[in-house]
Amino acid sequence: MHFQWYPGHMTKAKRQMQEDMKLIDLVIELVDARIPFSSRNPDIDELGRQKARLILMNKADLAAEEQTRKWTEFFQSQGYFVVKLDARARGGMKKISDVIMEACQEKIERDRKRGIKNRPVRAMVVGIPNVGKSTFINTYAGKACAKTGNKPGVTKGKQWIKLNKNVELLDTPGILWPKFEDQQVGLYLALVGSIKDEILNVDELSLELIQILKENYPGILTERYELPNEGAPAEILKQIAENRKCVKKGNELDYSKAAALLMDEFRSGRLGKITLEFPKEQE
Ligand code: G4P
Fold first, then answer.
1. pTM of the predicted structure, to 2 decimals
2. Centre of ligand 1 from the C-alpha of residue 130, in Å
3. Ligand 1 surroundings by CB, under 6 angstroms
4. 3-class SS at 10?
5. What distance separates the 2 farthest-apart alpha carbons in the chain?
6. What does the DSSP 8-state code read for residue 101?
């Protein structure tokens, strides 16, 4: 998906979200588990003030488990409920339903004191483009769930998906804009393939990736591409080209092909479970 944000888009998205916030009890925010900092927009904290908050660490199948655990603790220490997830898999959904109920305990208690029984929790999914919002809604809601349609008192056109007797989900996710004014954030989003209009070309991206891997996952490139040593990023890219026989006409090494191959193997998880951002850097 290609997304270009202009101030007009942001104002519209923000206004829409402010309206939707009035209808819900819980914000379900998806982040990319490989870049939990760069895939968030802290504006949601302002927009979702006074709402119960659940962060889903999505694409956890591609992230380093140890780091996902640390990020989970980090967000929990800030008062969020957190669940790690592969939104394409059905398995994690029971756990999420349980945590939603836990996160909304206060509301349920408040309702009970007012004599309101069994009013479902209403939730909305938010996140930056490509983080997995549609995949999550499809998997979580499934096909069996009936849409509840418009109800009196609900803004015209709003569709609610009844997940079970306790939870209803707004069927359109709220789209948050990335913090693209931050160069580092732009780089990380490009690395995981979340923005197609790359701020750097693939050759440069691959060199950035190699540098990050060298620092944080020593040996991972050596092992996969049988490198003789881990030298400078450009040297490593050359060795990957040699190992994978990336050559152009005239038997010249094709660095761009090697760069594309490396990016593809990283993004698809074939290089291993790799997290690019670490919670200690954010404290
Ligand atoms: P969005 O609504 O937030 O914009 O994101 P969307 O669901 O469209 O997901 C973006 C891409 O991320 C999709 O891949 C989707 O399959 C993939 N994805 C979503 N959740 C997960 C996850 O937990 N793990 C992994 N590994 N991938 C996930 P795509 O290549 O754009 O489309 P497709 O090839 O799946 O059709």
1. 0.92
2. 6
3. 1, 58-59, 61-62, 85-88, 127, 129-135
4. helix
5. 80
6. H
